[in-house]
Amino acid sequence: MAICVSNAKPFIPSLPSSSSPFPLHTQKLNSWRKPTLCRSVKESPFPHPNLISRRRSLSLCLTTSFLLSLGGSHGSLEANAAILEAEDDEELLQKVKMDKKKRVERQGLISSSGKETAHLQDLVYKLNRIGEAIDKNDLPAASGVLGQDLKTDWVKNVNSALDKFSISPQEKAEVDAFSSSLASLISSVEKKDFEASRVAFVASATAFEKWTTLTGLARELKGI
């Protein structure tokens, strides 16, 4: 059905012929009409059923594709996570095996080094006696245990044992710290410097204790 709307004639005032300077133009304006405007309107305001069906099918396809893509992405993420977790587990397993191997090797070294272990046990006893003497401000007694320099036999034996059991850089670093502190301790005791002797003794004992923990010898030595 077509609805046609005819525009109304525009209002143009007619001027007297005597007062109009443009009588010919005025007549043309009066005789002018706008063309009729027509607008088509469909019989039904609702879309065709086939169009609805096509739209519904398209929407369903898009939704399905979106859900499948989400599912695929989720599955891919889970697969990647599983791969990373497996790699982490493999690295952890290798680390555990390596640590176990090192412990077995270290235990074998300790078991086969009875003489060196005895030297270290003697060091523990000496440190306990030196500590007691310094607590009592009895530096002559501490000097009697230490000796006058690093050339004494017991110091040489201890250094040899420390070198034999030290494998990792951390262990070697603690050996260096102990040797330096022991040298300061002997020097401070000989100078009868009570405060410096206390500081050097604590540094020596701390470095040695850390070293025994790193090497596993803390379980083998008594008095630590």
UniProtKB/TrEMBL annotation:
<protein>
    <recommendedName>
        <fullName>Maintenance of Photosystem II under High light 2 C-terminal domain-containing protein</fullName>
    </recommendedName>
</protein>
<dbReference type="InterPro" id="IPR038862">
    <property type="entry name" value="MPH2"/>
</dbReference>
<feature type="domain" description="Maintenance of Photosystem II under High light 2 C-terminal">
    <location>
        <begin position="119"/>
        <end position="224"/>
    </location>
</feature>
<dbReference type="Pfam" id="PF20675">
    <property type="entry name" value="MPH2"/>
</dbReference>
<dbReference type="GO" id="GO:0010206">
    <property type="term" value="P:photosystem II repair"/>
</dbReference>
<dbReference type="InterPro" id="IPR049072">
    <property type="entry name" value="MPH2_C"/>
</dbReference>
